[in-house]
């Protein structure tokens, strides 16, 4: 039966189910055990499964991922937490040169069923290195899957699917949505991990987003509806691979596309989407694909982050510019 729960709780329940179902699943990270994580996402798991299954690690991201790679080689399915987005870079070498390459290096003989959980994005008034959106850096790396849920139900099921994957999955958790509640049916049949979903039907323009920006795009669509504009909202759910077929289907219907993400627009994932959709839908588009995102600048102090992050007005402005063509 469906139960209403916050996204953080949904991830906790998903990890609990995986730990209970498969003895090869391990949870590792800084403060994930006794503390239950800084956001309490892993709260209670060490108490129920022991410190050999839910492991408090040293403050050493490279060591955490390196140990997970070794465990995966021995048949385990580690789920490692990087405490904040900006802390992932000490582990970037392990992720890019080892984790992402092992399957190809072994000609397919070695699997790497590792999930790297990364709370990411802004909106919580955090200090430096705690509000980054580095998803494009990982999407650029062949051998990695990159996903980001936008709601509690997806958070639950996408974690299940990520753990079951034999390929490494970078699982970006939008920390500003941890406390947003939604219905979670733990007996449902989930959609495929990398399939996008239309969360609001529309006819005049498509808004494409993932993770924290999906809720904002739904708010934009509701505001635009008051002005007689019909906007379709597409939750991409996966950044790599991207569901270009779903994007194409939507754009062929609406003939306009605005891509929204928190990460900087410059060399962001929206650029790849814009290029591919322009190639696929050139004769359907009635306006260029527009992008709304962060600025090409270091993430600002908390008191300025609302000026940096995409908001209702900035997305509506892009909608108006597209519809003006």
Order of helices and strands: EHEHEHEHHEHEHEEEEHEEHEHEHH
**Range of strand content:** 15-25%
Strand order of the largest sheet: 3-2-4-5-7-6-12
Total DSSP helices? 12
Overall shape: it is: globular
Number of strands: 14
C-alpha termini separation: 47 Å
Mean pLDDT: 97
Classification by helices and strands: alpha/beta
Percent of residues in helical segments? 25-40%
If you compute it from the alpha carbons, what radius of gyration comes out, rounded to the nearest whole angstrom?
19 Å
Q: The biggest beta sheet, please?
A: 7 strands, mixed
Pick out the low-confidence regions: none
List keywords for this structure.
single chain, globular, 14 strands, 325 residues, Transketolase-like_Pyr-bd, alpha/beta, thiamine pyrophosphate
What does this structure look like?
α1 runs parallel beside α7 (152-164), α3 runs parallel beside α4 and α9 (244-254) crosses α10. A 7-stranded mixed β-sheet has the order 3-2-4-5-7-6-12, with helices on both faces. The chain has a 5-stranded mixed β-sheet with strand order 9-11-10-13-14, with helices on both faces. The protein has helices at 7-21, 45-49, 61-73, 92-99, 102-105, 135-139, 152-164, 213-225, 244-254, 269-280, 305-308, 312-323; strands at residues 2-6, 25-29, 54-56, 77-81, 115-120, 145-147, 169-174, 181-185, 197-200, 205-209, 231-235, 238-240, 257-264, 290-294. The longest helix has 15 residues, at 7-21. It has 325 residues and is α/β, with parallel strands linked by helices. The protein starts with a strand and ends with a helix. β2 (25-29), α2 (45-49) and β3 form a beta-alpha-beta unit.
